[in-house]
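pinning this so it doesn't scroll away 📌
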Amino acid sequence: MYCLQWLLPVLLIPKPLNPALWFSHSMFMGFYLLSFLLERKPCTICALVFLAALFLICYSCWGNCFLYHCSDSPLPDSAHDPGVVGT
């Protein structure tokens, strides 16, 4: 379970508030995970635990899934604020 210490923080990284950055964020996270899995070669149990946690987070639509935005969940109020785009 040593290899999970590098995978679990990935689930805690929040999505950007600006919807225009969601694609870039999901591509970055996908490439990070792919490169991590190819370079570090985590054990099968760690990889399955991480994929199960990722599936449960994305399936429940809690809003922190970096793969896609659930259509049922509303955008945060600050996503419509034009001041957020400049920060």
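📌 and the second one:
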Amino acid sequence: MASLTSIATPYRSSSYPSSSQALRVKLTGNTLFSAGVRSSATSSSLLTIRSAATKPDKPAADVDWRQKRELLLEKRVRGVDVKEALRLQKENNFVILDVRPEAEYKEGHPPGAINVEMYRLIREWTPWDIARRLGFAFFGIFSGTEENPEFIQSVEAKLDKEAKIIVACSSAGTMKPTQNLPEGQQSRSLIAAYVLVLNGYKNVFHLEGGIYTWSKEGLPIESEED
């Protein structure tokens, strides 16, 4: 039976090798498995996939949550519940920035919300991207995602640095401590808020409970058809 010594895995900083590093998968025995892909081999072999491009030293998702949370608190990013968010949108010209995938946004979103994906499907087919696809497939995920490299540029094209923004995703995390989560819990929207404040946005809020709670509370939802 094959044995895996290392493999590309999603969401971990160690899964982002630099351009000079290689992703190495060692296999032994008569059957070769590589992230769920099966082929035959007659002897022990070593599969090496080299990155075709330099990756960021540490994508926003891989920065330690405690470090992100400290900056969010320092920049006075606070959570607002869905009813307060609706009031701020109507009375104080706040913009809801929906960072979910475009397909989810089109299925239903708060009226007036702007969509910029924080994560998107992996698009390229470089050796590095193929390795990441294999890593996702190993865990049964066949639609692997990556941090959107155009996120901040897309936001800047729609909202200036003085804009009052409420960042939202599906169910959201929280910066509020609980007994089980003394440092809260990160989410796509909090990662997006972190990227925004890093890039000079000054009025950033976070939607507690996300679009799920917004819909559950019976607040206005609109959808878009292709």
